[in-house]
Amino acid sequence: MLLGVFGTGAILTACGAQSTASSELVHPHHLTIGMEAMLPPYSYRSTGGHVKGFDVDLSHAISKQLKLKTNVKTTKWSGLIAGLGSHKFDGVIDNITYTPERAKSFNFSKPYAYSPYMLMVNKKYPINNVHQLKGKTFMEGVGTDNQFVARKWGAHTKPATSFAEIMLAVKEGRVQGTIDSVQAWKAYAKSNNTSKIKAYPIPESTQAPAKISVLFNKHDPALQKKVNKVLAKLRKNGTLRRLSEKYFHTNITVKKQQM
């Protein structure tokens, strides 16, 4: 579960039909987006140190529609939440999942993507579905939806700070497994040896796919509404689908997906 809001952010108000009031943004004429850049292909650092990925391109597309420049700032997960509350970011785009509990402290955009879950386990453990997780030891990011889902099905969880750390622990058998998105597994499997890991898609009938949204300060409803309108436009004109196919080679912006 995400931490609560730290402090308050300035309230954004409309300034004309097509523009955003720059004076009330973190930086005038810029949309400042926080992200961790630790989960390819959503967001990651290239070998040259540049931040790239689906969420980065989406940030640029949203900014363009709002007639703003994009200012992407990277920080650790805990810093994203604190930074949003203290108005260091206008929003956070970082593969963040909507839950009713989180919505008590934050505003969310309409979903821009949907993320089915994948169960990943070390091959030496006889686990192939979530009904077998009771009492098992899994590794998950602290405060993530993956941690919530693993615990929901009875697993004990060890904390981790990155997906790479988690997958190494699973591969070495230091934990029995982990739960993450189908997309995260596919990206990992492309560039890593997975001979010691088995992956099992979690059926939608068992665990509904996560709704991925932009996160806003609870006190900034005007920006939330503007971004919702932009996302609707990007969905209608095919931009969301094109960005998804560029990075995932499938359309993750719809609920029903090919596994």
Automatic annotation (TrEMBL):
Signal peptide: none annotated. Residues 30-251 form the Solute-binding protein family 3/N-terminal domain. Pfam families: SBP_bac_3 (PF00497). The keyword Transferase does not apply. Transmembrane segments: none annotated. Keywords: Signal. The keyword Cell cycle does not apply. This is Transporter substrate-binding domain-containing protein. It comes from Acetilactobacillus jinshanensis.
